Amino acid sequence: MHIAIAGNIGSGKTTLTRLLSKNYGWTPKYEDVDVNPYLSDFYNDMQRWSFNLQIYFLNRRFQGIVEIAQSNLNVIQDRTIYEDARIFAPNLHAMGLMSTRDFENYTSLFNLMLSLVKPPDLLVYLRSSISNLVSQIQKRGREYESSIRLDYLQGLNERYEQWIESYRDGKKLILDVDELKFEDNPRDLSTVIDRIDAVLNGLF
């Protein structure tokens, strides 16, 4: 079984991955943001480093899916391969921060990779307002995230909404994390787990 957690920066993907892996006894697979060699440079100069960053993410994401498929373990995954290509790269291109040449090259590589892997058994999307994202980003206090632009977050949020509405590759569940504070409220976490169980067991 493979559950993937999707959502904007600061929406709570890593936290939910940790809580669900503990609840189900499944293997967590986290996004390795703290060892990313491009992230800090990217936030300081998005146009210069956007293509490098997205290729790095795509490589790591593809490698992660291959490892999940080969392991035969039950896995909770923090972020999906779809988000880079459906949200982050198109947003950078639209903002003029990635050239058309680089974007087309990137998209071609993504489409090839996607043809070789299976979608997750369940995609959980964490829907969040911009104000909640900013609050969570400030709360965790990562230095390289301190310069994230609000228009960048807003553009990502809009693309997330468009993507999740059109997602047809498998089962999906949308959680409103402005309302469901699963990190601090055990009742909210129980609600999330009940909703996941219902989708996995075919009740909805």
Return the CATH class.
Answer: Alpha Beta
CATH topology (fold) name: Rossmann fold
Strand order of the largest sheet: 2-3-1-4-5
* Alpha-beta content class: alpha/beta
In the predicted model, the low-confidence regions spanning at least 5 consecutive residues are none
Number of domains: 1
Helix content: 55-70%
Beta fraction: 5-15%
CATH superfamily: P-loop containing nucleotide triphosphate hydrolases
Mean pLDDT: 91
Q: What's the order of the H and E elements?
A: EHEHHEHHEHHEH
Count of beta strands: 5
CA-based gyration radius: 16 Å
Summarize the biggest pleated sheet.
Answer: 5 strands, parallel
CATH architecture: 3-Layer(aba) Sandwich
Cα end-to-end separation: 18 Å
Q: Give the number of helices.
A: 8
Tell me the overall shape: globular
Describe this structure in words.
With 204 residues, this protein is of the alpha/beta class. It has one domain: 3-Layer(aba) Sandwich (Rossmann fold), CATH 3.40.50.300. Helix content is 57%, strand content 12%. The chain has helices at 13-24, 39-44, 46-71, 81-94, 100-114, 130-140, 150-166, 186-200, and strands at 2-7, 27-29, 75-78, 122-127, 171-176. A five-stranded parallel sheet has the order 2-3-1-4-5, with helices on both faces. Helix 3 runs antiparallel to helix 4 (81-94) and helix 4 (81-94) packs across helix 7. The mean pLDDT is 91.
